[in-house]
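Kindly review both lines to help learners:
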Amino acid sequence: MNTKPIRRSLSSITTAFALAALALAALAVGPDTARAATATALYKQPFDNTSGSEKSISYLAGWTTQKAADATEVTADNRIQIANGPSSTPGVVYIYPTSAGYVSRGTGITNNQDNPGTSISLATVGAISADIVQAKTKGSITFLIQIDNADWFISTTPITPSHTFGNWAAWSDAGSPDIKESLTFSTAQTAWQKFELTSSGIVTTALSANLTGTAITGIGWLAKSGGETYNYIRMDNLAIEAAVPEPATTAALAGALILLATVLKKK
């Protein structure tokens, strides 16, 4: 019996699997920046304002702002507005928070990027991010999410913007991704607290279990000045990003392919 064709076939299969394994291994050990570039935005709010004049956040459908101290609605308050930015930025949120802070929220959100109109599945979210700068150093932004058009939750990890600005030119010169701040998304019970805003202020409740639900239907933030006067905060490109596969997952698949290629070669 002539076994050469069989050996040649096995050799071809071995080569194919080995090449595939090498390609996957290369992806697995690639830099984090390369992996981050593959993240897909599920939702983005660019705060566009091309009206030619400053607008309150009510310019955006479904968005409101309240005082964190007593829940007073200040949606039309000029301290939180959509401001005309540099030519590269059609609009940004311009916030002048107090020590207690302001709460801004948008409801009824869905995927408006890769699959418009579909829900933002809780299981697919990898991060919440935004371009953020502040005038001083102690201000903070803490992200909020709403699940299934019901309860709101606040992150237990406030973000202190690492970049400061002196004027619009400073914002423009910094540019994304240098001013991008990101919260890695997790459903762990320690990552979120139930959030309520009452006439007495903010009420948070620790979760007794991991965050559950079907979809994110609302997004927002609590902005605080950190006790510094005139600590303006500017925010742009608020986004909910899809999860990116972990390197370990890719490495495991690559290892399996290498093992299979070795077995085939021995046969």
In short: The radius of gyration is 24 Å. The first helix runs from residue 4 to 28.
